[in-house]
Specification:
Residues 1-18 form the signal peptide. Keywords: Signal. It comes from Epilithonimonas hungarica. Pfam families: DUF3078. This protein has two helices and 15 strands. By secondary structure, the protein is mainly beta. The chain folds into two domains: 2-34; 83-365, Outer membrane phospholipase (ompla), Chain C (Beta Barrel).
Length: 369
Amino acid sequence: MKKILVLFVLMLGISINAQTTDYQRIIDSIGQKKWDSISINIDSLANPRLVDVKSLKRDEVKINNSIVIVPNTDDSSPLTPSSILTLPTLKRWFIFGQNTLVFNQSSFANWYAGGNNNIGVIGKVNYNIVYKKNKHYLDNNIQFGYGFVSSTGQSTRKTDDYINIMTNYGYELAQHYYLSTGFQFLSQFTPGFNYSSTPDPVYDNRISKFMAPGYLNLGLGFSYNPNDNFQIILRPLNGKFTFVLDKKLQTKGNYGLERDGQSLRAEVGTMMNVLYKIKLFKDATYVNQINLFSNYLEHSERVDINYSGALNLKFNKYITTSITIDVMYDHDQIQKLQRKQTLGVGVTYSLGYKVERDSKPGVINPFVK
């Protein structure tokens, strides 16, 4: 009986061992196929190839679709063309605007040193409307400003008045370089007076008004715009047209007119415009802009110079201080240096969107550091 039991256990063990071997063979076959599919070909290491894996900094996003728009931050400085030109996937209109209202006021009651009650207001709007698609770029800039001061015992006097409309079309020739063409229109809203000679002027005392003068510049050339803070526009072929549509002001020598009754003066020359913005510290910027024009046809050495500088100080999201200076020299108008300076504290409200970009193509910073 014992022999039969031992023989049975031996046969059972042999049978189990045979089945385990079959199962193990199947498992080993599956494991080998898996290994073959993921194993590295050692021979390929003889010719290694490096792959550039791009990394993103913290708080950055990768542009994968046609456009990424980031809501405007506390930075209220004007939009510059570079922030749009180098975004490779922008295919829509981009609008950014600033609205500024500046106040100044003083009041006196039994003040021994004397003084006049007065109040002054200056309103300004500055809008950029930009379109970029592929290598084509269109920039429209609209600037309006008007201000007055009213004092006891004096008539209301104008302190600021301008219309400045610019349109520039660019075609990208190379990185930061563009074929550029466009126009600029300059004039004012209401009549201007010389308050030194006529303290209480009437309309007949006007020395300027809308389209008297009015300026139109048309040109073709190139522009260079490497970053948000620097831009040069050079137009070797530029037409400058001066309009004086008020018959009273159409006298020889006035605004460069060559004869009495002349309403339009045309000049052809070269124009250069340079924009340079300096960030003094976090909430203070100084914007320099100079425009030069030389007439090919007459006295090319007499260069028209127009410089404007603006120091913008920001206290919070809405309260700002602005100090501006404008210096102009035009030999055909008056052979003296013309100067205008303003200072004011006011409220600025910005509309639209603004994008700060990283130096790497296709990467933008969604937050202003």
